[in-house]
Amino acid sequence: MRKQPKQHRANQMIALLLEATALEIADRGLDRLTTNHVAQRAGVSIGSLYQYFANKEMLVDALLMQKAERLMGVVHERLPPLLGGDIATVTRAVLLGIFEQVAGDPTQRELLRHWQRLNAAPVFQTLERQMTELCRQYLMRHVDEYRIENLPALLFVLINAVQYTTARYLVEERSLLGRDEVIEALVRMVEALCQPTAQQAVKRGG
């Protein structure tokens, strides 16, 4: 059998270690995570793990970024078919996808519970950049439908408000609010900030 390229083997090892890290966090919780447990779960030596990650913090940082990429994958999957739709429909569909993704991933929920003490800033910044670009594309496509005076400022407020509200809600153990209530409140906020033009308002009013 032909020998696989080193880069391919490295990528396989990293994927294996991150999967093992995710499973350990889901089973034991973040505070009980150790590199020894990860190596055992992955079926590799601790020395092999340290060739790729110097400590458990680096493992968690890489896992955080991987989870962010998967969240964006949900957004990229849901958004394109809806680009021609109204802003409420688009916002609702994207938020529902994000909430469902996190709800079905115990590792992601555990990471969110501790995001304030993790190195989460690069992850939030990555999400903000990507979501800003997607929202910009949507609003530019509907430029005649909304009165946007300062697009950069609007997107900064929208993305961060949605991002941190969503994260805050998802870490609650027993929230007094239901998921749909939070999503609808965010949808209404987005609608309010993206004021329709007079022509579009009349059109919506029938």
TrEMBL record:
Q: Gene3D superfamilies this protein is in?
A: Tetracycline Repressor, domain 2 (1.10.357.10)
Q: Which residues form the HTH tetR-type domain?
A: 11-71
Record carries keyword Transcription: yes
User: Superkingdom, according to UniProt?
Assistant: Bacteria
Pfam families, alphabetized: TetR_N (PF00440)
Residues in the DNA-binding region are: 34-53
Instruction: For this UniProt record, give its keywords in alphabetical order, as a comma-separated list.
Output: DNA-binding, Transcription, Transcription regulation
Q: Name one GO molecular function term.
A: DNA-binding transcription factor activity
**InterPro entries per UniProt:** DNA-bd_HTH_TetR-type_CS, Homeodomain-like_sf, HTH-type_TetR-like_transc_reg, HTH_TetR
Q: What is this protein called?
A: TetR/AcrR family transcriptional regulator
